[in-house]
Queue: 4 jobs
Job 1
Amino acid sequence: MSRTLVLVRHGQSEWNLKNLFTGWRDPSLTEQGHAEAKAAGQRLKDAGLQFDIAYTSDLSRAQITCQHILDQLGQSDLQTIRNVALNERDYGDLSGLNKDDARAKWGEEQVHIWRRSYDVPPPGGESLRDTGARVWPYYLHTIQPHVLRGEKVLVAAHGNSLRALIMALEGLTSDEIIAQELNTGVPIVYELNADSTIASKKVLTA
């Protein structure tokens, strides 16, 4: 039985390009971001993958990425479930600020702590642990049952919501997960065992 879970971070967004903290704000994809999402779909097609269900966040950059992937696979009408649980980490008061401006205001060290610590949230926002607190139950109760039934599941989401999910999937420590970088538009293909542990992992780079 194939128990396939594919995770994809959305393609480059307009605010990624401008070096802004994005969080729950809702910019669209850049031209490069659209191309990255379509290329992700093509790589999944080349790998022979088709999906039974897709999940994405409540934010348009992830939704558009998901749709581009499904279009490339000839599965434009696949059932796709959107949920705020998969949203990017909420950056609170940092949202919309240029990262260099934030460093000028609060200092390099403080901004680094907010960006890279596991459990220290920015003002009015979420830490990675807070993000995990909504991602993990959603995955366990809603997404994982489809995978364990032998369905192929696509999740198109965000750098930090996917980091939280990968932390749980791979059993990583807080130090290990904050060091992980997820490139935009690069599919990660997991095959799971019947007990939900990982049988294999493949990153479909260009």
Job 2
Amino acid sequence: MKHQVKVWDAPTRLFHWTLAASFAFMWWSAEQGGDWMAWHLRGGVLIAVLLVFRLLWGVLGSQTARFADFLKGPASILRYVRGELTEREQPGHNPLGGWMVLAMLAALAAQVTTGLFSADVNAYIYDGPLAAAISSETAEQMNSYHRLNFNLVLALVGLHLAAIVFYRVVKRQNLVKPMLTGYKSIEGEAPSLYFAPVVIALVTLVVAAGAVYFVLTRF
């Protein structure tokens, strides 16, 4: 018998969809150029806050949001590939999906970092907030890295979307609905999961925003 089990807390879901919307806007605003680059820079700061929040939430947050819960070794990955790892054992991210999450966060962190230090080589108006902290040559190089790394981020996004389609069509599993509602249909006895209080998420968000503000105003 299947049970509807809460696997994703509200902070994790809000982070996911806010990040997705922010990434789409960043892509669009970069393509528009011109005065939209001012909003592109603001969007970059927002994503920086989101990433710091997610790193902290991966340690302090709910069970399925913690890195220790979904970053598994070769043995667990092999069990998953063989179909031996049940959803009750791994109700959140599966072992492969967990490493995809880490890869995505790392690529986005690189994208934000290079953007913060990038020089505006087109209009010379909208430099990254930290571009003045390095030489102009290095800032221009950062711009090149920023553009190059975007292709990696885009490839990871494409792989993520392909995995969602694969699970929906081949495995008959809807991965989008649980990230919207928080609930997932799991066979057998419902697992007992820990969910962090909302106040911890709010404090974590404030700390993340404060850390980004400190970096942007001190360097």
Job 3
Amino acid sequence: MLGKKLRLHELDKMIIILLGILCGVSILFIFSTQSSWHFGAQNFALKQGINYIIGFILLYFFRFLDLNQLRTLSWPFYFFTALSLVILAIAPESIAPNILGAKRWFSIPLLGSIQPSEFFRIAVILIVAKLIFEHKEKHLSQSIQGDFLLIGKILIVILIPSLLVYQQPDTGMVMLYLFAILAMLGMVKLHKAVVTIGILIPMLLVSTIVFLFLVKPELIYDDIIPKLKPHQQERIIGWLDPSGNSNESFQSSRSILAVGTGGLTGKGLEGGNVYVPEKHTDFIFASIAEEGGFLTGSVVILLFFLLIVRIIDIGIKSNDAYGTYICAGLALSLTIQIVQNIGMVEGMLPVKGIALPFLTYGGSSLFSNMILLGIVMSVRNTYGHQFFGSSKVS
């Protein structure tokens, strides 16, 4: 009876089950990590459990918003989150502290740290999906001018807030915005010339950098890398030449050691003996691979795969293009975030301050992702109710 009143049957069972397992994995390995290393009196595992309770409440709330309501709220949510980025940039350190050279968080009494760039990702997905949806309704015929007009609209609303996030600095988050936008644009039949230009420019840029690195590496080290911010220089140099830059590659080297010594089945809970900075946050996968081994790490990756497949499936079945765009943006954004985090943990990609979704300790990343999954469930229930008012969903 209570379930019917709360409409729990409308929650997507597969997503809830996957989130439940990821919640358990997150709390378990955060607890194990804090038991192995001294973090003072802070109980990160307990705090993560509280974060998950709040996250499920947010998911439940946003699941009740239908797509029309989301379209209506997209602009207010965009302006609110964009304004928060502006305030963060000019706020004094008393409320926006500089942590390890980055100014990304508001420090709010009782609530803790809030990272506005995480919530702006929700705004990016909602507002770009809205712009694409409305543009395609007004411009039924395909044209180069129409496609460039759409891209121009997106740049106008995204460029300045993204630059603010980049200046924090948070290059990884800007990258997630970009891939979310690319995924949504990929769902639209853009003119072949626009697609060609969009593919050739980044390919040419990457090819040029790789060519210069192979032929004239001194040009990369002496002329290009010094133009980056200090923390970016350290991470790239440490990644390109870890043996010759032990200080810059310390975190990555320790992470690789932790993963490598985990073996097939791991060292067991609380058995991790390799010190890795931020092991309970962005490097939580190092703890999973060390203590749970290759098998546990593979299971975690499988859970992520199933979650992303479910999001894509919901987007494909949606009878509303707006919902399809949202699911596409979230699916690719999550995929890139997972690949980047695990890639940096295993030394295959440069280190970035980017969380592993649903596993890394912290509230902002978890809350934003739970809100997005609530929105995905809204997409699912929208197409589930389209036939004769039936509440049957698949």
Job 4
Amino acid sequence: MTTPFTGPVGVGFIGAGVISDQYLTNLTTFPDVEVLILGDLDTERAAAQAAKYGVPASGTAQDVLDHPGVQVVVNLTIPAVHTEISSQAIAAGKHVWTEKPLGLEREASKALLAQADEAGLRIGSAPDTVLGAGVQTAKRAILDGLIGRPLFAQTSMQWQGPEVFHPNPGFLFAKGAGPLLDMGPYYFTTLVSLFGTVDKVAAIGLKATEEREIRVGDKAGTTFPVEVPSTISVLTQFEAGQTGTSLLSFDSPLARQGIVEIHGTEGSLVVPDPNMFEGRIAYVRPFETFGERPPEQEWIEIPQEGPVTGRGLGLLDMVRAINENRPHVATGEVGYHVLDIMLSAEESAASGEFVTVESSVAEIPAVPADFDPLAKTL
């Protein structure tokens, strides 16, 4: 059993880049946690972020690991070193919250989970958008039987790609990224949260071009190689019987993002963008009968219930779960299963065959509607 906390939990960051703003905006306001130190390869950047958010200390990654008050490390490093940094934090006796994905390959990610389990420490893995009011309201509606028995899901994330705004987008088309590993965690984590374990996948991918051109910044006009599919369609078969179809593309002139639809025996439910913590939730009922042509279907709106704060909810749920001796929602095991799904999709796209997903997850709990990030509970 993990040792419970006796007051606000000390938090240290490794990685003080752009996404740290979203985490710091929230974690510096939650009474149950206290951000003590920020570490980064660029120590000046860490110091600037610390000054901006009133964090008392900054320095290197090692300074964070050595800090005696840090009980949880927030790993915001680049994906290629996620497992390495998380492993160092576990070895230092710290719990870990890591940005997505958990890692980039199976063996190192499995070893990380085993290391944490042996040490009696917890790992939480982004995205924690699934803890927001949007997905959680939809999840409770499905559990309450609003749309009957869920049958299948459709998701879509498509647009023309990040080179139109990012000054150095090459890494987003390199091995370990692409639309699948960059944006896929949001969509597949949502589907796993709603349906549970994925049993097998099939996928087809393509590259629109072998090279792409940077459109903005100092490198505008230069090209970079495309190492992974820039469009991929994934078919998922869930252990509980549902199926899913997911499109992830950096090649579409038509922008259509955040599409998550769940279709059941008694209705179809629109779920908010899984990259957000809130959004529209609505459903339609099937027709009983109609005349020569069907009338326009009536959308029934569902009010959101629950927290909409933003990034950091997953870490907060994890530390509260430790004190309550219960599973947290965004576990390392969920992060690993989502990684396994995505790597299996890559393998299927390369082989042209269905691939069995070897990992599985336990039932993922719903977040209570009265979960209050601003409450003091520790």
